[in-house]
Automatic annotation (TrEMBL):
Organism: Tolypothrix tenuis PCC 7101
Transmembrane segments: 48-69, 75-98
The protein, known as: Galanin
UniProt keyword list: Membrane, Transmembrane, Transmembrane helix
């Protein structure tokens, strides 16, 4: 199913429920759209730069002609031609920059579709070839009004406020071969402090400061009772089984009668690192399945 280009350009969201081969093909198409946008932007930027160099050349030549005209008046026509050339080159420069700006929205965050493609391919190895997966992948920036979840007063600065942002840019839902249903989400978290600050001169300036908090990964596995029913006996072992990369740490591990939940926060310095995200998600699945496999043995 080809990407609806105009709809994707407007919303920057890929959302569907489809078989694995279709989703992988769609992600590859998104990658092609991004690469094409990057190439086109680079082409328009180079053209605009060449036209700008032309403007500078015309201006320099124009100054030279100003001195020559005093001795050779006929060069006034050349000066007029240079003036027209500057106007044309200025219009062309603006035109190329506008085209480059319009494509900026399609120059999306590479790591999001790259890591999503790797995750889908990893999960596909443990899913039925004909099974479907539900996916929602957003390329919107985190610092956006629609992502504000809370606004609170600053704890130490008077008349300052803090906006807290949460951007769930990935959601994957499907079923593995052992009938375990999974839900994986990636949620970018950040906060912005803003307010008026009085300087030494007595003048007040409006200040803003944005801090990336990190990336929250949440994995829920709804396991079949018959196969993994004995997992209830391993309540104390679930937390011990969780192994993660150095810059990721578990925030919550919860075991219920029907599911096991694992919430992990990645440090802000690796929150947009494709390899770190993929490695963390892989280790989350392996950690929970280590407990499920032990429960499977005990259930026998």
């Amino acid at each position: 199913m080809p990407i609806e280009f105009l709809n994707f350009r407007k919303n920057l969201i890929y959302s569907t429920t489809a078989n694995l081969s279709t989703i992988i093909a769609d992600l590859q198409e998104i990658e092609s759209i991004d690469h094409l946008a990057e190439l086109q932007q680079s082409k328009y930027a180079k053209r605009a730069l060449y036209y700008f160099y032309g403007i500078i050349g015309c201006v320099v030549l124009g100054f030279i002609l100003l001195f020559v005209i005093a001795k050779i008046p006929v060069f006034v026509f050349a000066l007029f031609a240079l003036f027209l050339a500057i106007i044309v080159l200025t219009v062309l420069t603006i035109y190329e920059l506008v085209k480059r700006f319009k494509l900026g929205k399609l120059n999306i965050l590479n790591y999001r579709y790259e890591v999503t493609q790797r995750i889908v391919q990893m999960l596909a190895r443990d899913m039925d070839a004909g099974s479907e997966m539900e996916i929602k992948l957003s390329f919107k920036q985190t610092k956006n009004k629609e992502n504000i979840v809370e606004t609170i007063p600053h704890p130490t600065k008077r008349d300052w406020k803090i906006d807290k942002y949460q951007n769930e840019w990935l959601s994957l839902k499907g079923q593995l071969l052992d009938k375990t249903r999974f839900l994986l989400t990636a949620n970018q978290v950040s906060k912005t402090q803003y307010g008026w600050k009085r300087g030494r001169s007595g003048k007040s300036k409006y200040k803003t400061k944005t801090n990336d908090v990190g990336l929250d990964l949440i994995l829920t596995l709804h396991y079949p009772q018959r196969r993994y029913g004995a997992i209830k006996l391993l309540q104390s072992e679930v937390s011990k089984a969780v192994k993660l990369p150095n810059l990721s740490h578990p925030r919550n591990v919860k075991l219920t009668d029907k599911a096991v939940h694992l919430s992990v926060r990645m440090a802000p310095q690796v929150a947009d690192n494709e390899n770190e995200i993929y490695q963390t998600i892989t280790m989350m699945f392996l950690s929970l399945y280590q407990v499920l496999n032990l429960a499977k043995v005990l259930s026998k």
